[in-house]
Specification:
Length: about 350
């Protein structure tokens, strides 16, 4: 439904979005996670045709964002970061006015306004001035606005920002319900939020995409998997083979080989400390183990910098599913970033 290819946006000297590519499939709720200033809103503004990109391509429902903006906008309901509302209009007046702007005409208009009011749970406040509504309700008005023309795709920019915990819960529930009928791209800087609402998450940091996986995979790996960096002196190929043979090792990635020394990133399964086995394999083969360090903590730290944990800490549900994909991508993404 959405395809982004090598998208780049530069504001003068500031590279806000740096060569990112991703896809949002039909029916999917994709979380777009990253700290403030990562480039989320910029990407969303490009996808909704509010600003042009510096380079790259993007399509929404098959329509080119740069050459076919009218059709793109028809397919998209957009909730911007700061919902611009007319505070001295009544909710239903405002939505009716917005529907007219979106060319929802005739008896369709009343029907669409009523349906949006209903879906966003604001029927009771429809005659109230927007200025008298709480932030949570204003957010719902913004969502109702985004739904007026019955778009297939919703692009929601930090829909729960600035809400109190109760309102956050309600808006998340609403998004989950909307996700049953719509394809959604949702940005947030809150890690548990994506776990609650999104089927898949992409993480952006300083304009670069650093991860693309299911929240369960990312969280399981971050919480319980271990990643060990090994620097060795000895024949790279046999060392790699031997590391792969250790029980509990999921993946071995050869990082660099300078001839004399070689580096590996070893991923081990949940609750499995493979460091002793690695040590023994080296001793047995008379290879030199120059360095071995557990980098799961570092990953978590980096991830922590990338995201904000919710107050009180997140309850991370244990998944039965053993995550095997994803962390490699994440690790290489993070390594790539460290080097660059
Ligand atoms: N209109 C603008 N002019 C110049 N720089 C901007 C503009 N909008 C955003 N930026 C910069 O681009 C980067 C990405 O911003 P943004 O997309 O808003 O991030 P996010 O939504 O992830 O917080 C930031 O460094 C921000 O300061
Ligand atoms: Mg933003």
């Amino acid at each position: 439904m959405i395809k982004v290819q090598n998208l780049t946006k530069r504001y003068a000297a500031n590279l806000a979005v740096d060569d990112i590519s991703f896809e949002v499939h039909e029916g999917e709720v994709l979380g777009f996670l990253g700290p403030n200033g990562a480039g989320k809103s910029t990407t969303m503004r490009i996808l909704t045709c509010f600003i042009p990109a510096t380079a790259g391509f993007a399509w929404v429902a098959g329509c080119d964002v740069f050459t076919d903006s009218l059709n793109v906008r028809k397919q998209i309901g957009y909730l911007p970061e700061n919902v611009p509302l007319y505070l001295d209009m009544r909710v239903n007046e405002y939505l009716s006015f917005r529907a007219e702007l979106k060319k929802v005409r005739g008896k369709d208009r009343k029907m669409r306004v009523d349906e949006s009011l209903e879906r966003c749970g604001i029927v009771d406040v429809q005659n109230q001035m927007i200025g008298t509504l709480s932030k949570g309700y204003r957010q719902r008005v913004g969502l109702a606005d985004a739904l007026l023309h019955d778009p297939k795709i919703l692009i929601l920019d930090e829909p729960t920002i600035g809400l109190d915990p109760n309102q956050i819960r309600q808006v998340r529930q609403l998004i989950r319900e909307l996700g049953e009928k719509h394809t959604i791209l949702l940005s947030t800087h809150i890690l548990p939020e994506v776990e609650m609402v999104c089927g898949r998450v992409i993480i952006i940091d300083r304009g670069k995409l650093v991860a693309n996986d299911t929240p369960a995979n990312l969280l399981t790996k971050l919480k319980t998997g271990s990643v060990i960096e090994v620097q060795a002196k000895g024949p790279a190929a046999p060392i790699e083979k031997s590391l792969r043979g250790i029980a509990g090792v999921i993946k071995v990635e050869a990082k660099s080989n300078t001839g004399a020394t070689s580096n590996f990133v070893v991923e081990a399964g949940k609750d499995r400390d493979v460091r002793e086995d690695i040590y023994r394999a080296f001793v047995k083969n008379d290879w030199v183990l120059l360095e071995m360090k557990k980098i799961a903590v570092t990953l978590e730290e980096i991830f922590h910098q990338l995201t904000t944990m919710e107050e009180g800490g997140a309850v991370v549900k244990e998944r039965e599913q053993q995550a095997t994909a994803g962390i490699g991508q994440m690790v290489s993404g993070l390594f790539g970033k460290k080097k660059g």
